[in-house]
Specification:
- The longest helix is centred in the middle third of the chain and has 18 residues.
- The protein is about 45% helix and about 20% strand.
- A hairpin with a 2-residue loop joins strand 5 and strand 6.
- By secondary structure, it is α/β, with parallel strands linked by helices.
- The strands form 2 sheets. A 6-stranded mixed sheet has the order 8-7-9-6-5-10, with helices on both faces.
- It contains 13 helices and 11 strands.
- The protein is globular and about 65 Å long.
- Helix 4 crosses helix 5, helix 6 crosses helix 7 and helix 8 packs across helix 9.
Length: about 325
């Protein structure tokens, strides 16, 4: 059983529901049917019910079939009984930013915002979008409605990297941030480390061992780029976080036990790190693609993290299977 099959089985036990706001997209309808048919979660589709069900029938998808009908619901934000309450919530949240009540009402008719409101109000476990909307639009709705996790200021991303035959076994690493924050400062790096540790616990289910990566190991080089990573480590220490971390560490010292014994013998993380925090987006993006292409690793993501409730973005070139797999990750992230 591969990792996605394992995660899918775990997600089935969450008992959650997923909002798919892009019901005008055929891939979303296929994904909704698969999620329901496999018993992964309940699905909320947003849009005109008659159009959605007509489109589904044209694709050969019977949303009214036994075992499916009670797993898929359709809601039109424009005439929902929740619209007024959600608009009032959004107005109160954004009025200091110049949003009027009328603007709030119109904004909440947008499926991205309405879907995020369902998640915010605990009417759904999480939302998956991006098949038909840009990343910027998905994140804007998520940030304005769901907001950032208390105690953090940074929304970031991570990739699950399944590396085959790493020192004799397949190993699962998390790489962050590889997709969102171009040049994080020390506080943002600390936020990314905290978010990624939580993501690992939620999705993979084991204990994170976080390495703050650099071209220096525990003071072996002096440079302002190293200073930033050292400061991030100090911030994590001051926060009293509940996961193991260390830095700054070179990559080999972070993941190879024999090199860790030489370069960082007193470290509790060196040589054992399973969660790698890169110092900036260039390093992270290049790093995950190098491992994906040259080590033939499976890269799952990007997974958006740091939000108060899970909302994940998709590539607009995604497949229906990608939507299903992302829904699985969101379900696992919804567990507190």
């Amino acid at each position: 059983m591969n990792i996605l099959d394992t995660l899918k089985e775990r997600a089935k036990h969450v008992g959650g529901s997923i909002v798919l706001p892009e019901a005008n997209d055929s891939r979303t309808l296929k994904a909704a049917y698969s999620i329901a048919a496999e018993g992964i979660a309940k699905v909320v589709l947003l849009g005109d019910p008659a159009t959605i069900r007509s489109d589904a029938r044209a694709m050969g998808l019977d949303f009214g079939a036994d075992g499916i009908a009670d797993m898929i619901s359709v809601e039109n934000p424009a005439d929902s009984t929740r619209l007024t309450a959600y608009a009032e919530f959004f107005y109160n949240k954004r009025k200091d930013k110049g949003v009027s009540q009328e603007q709030a009402f119109e904004t909440m008719k947008n499926p991205l915002y309405f879907g995020a409101a369902l998640v915010k109000h605990k009417e759904a476990s999480g939302m998956v979008a991006g098949a038909a909307n840009t990343t910027a639009d998905v994140l804007k709705a998520a940030l304005q409605v769901v907001g950032v996790l208390p105690g953090l200021k940074t929304v970031s991303s991570t990739f699950i990297m399944v590396v085959p035959d790493f020192m004799g076994e397949d190993k699962v690493f998390l790489f962050a941030d590889c997709a969102v924050v171009p040049n994080p400062n020390a506080e943002q790096l600390a936020d990314i480390a905290s978010s990624t540790a939580q993501t690992r616990r939620s999705i993979i289910g084991d204990e994170p061992k976080v390495a703050l990566l650099s071209f220096s190991t525990l003071g072996s080089a002096k440079h302002e780029l190293v200073d930033k990573v050292q400061e991030a480590k100090a911030i994590l220490g001051n926060r009293g976080v509940d996961f193991a971390f260390d830095g700054e560490l070179q990559l080999d010292a972070a993941i190879i036990p024999s090199i860790a014994r030489s370069k960082a013998p007193a470290s509790s993380v060196a040589g054992q790190a399973n969660t790698l925090v890169f110092p900036d987006l260039q390093a992270g993006n290049i790093g995950y693609k190098l491992v994906q292409r040259m080590a033939k690793a499976e890269a799952i993501g990007p997974i958006i993290q740091g939000l108060a409730d899970p909302v994940c973005d998709l590539s607009r070139g995604c497949s229906a299977e990608d939507i299903v797999n992302t829904a699985v990750l969101v379900l696992l992230m919804s567990q507190k």
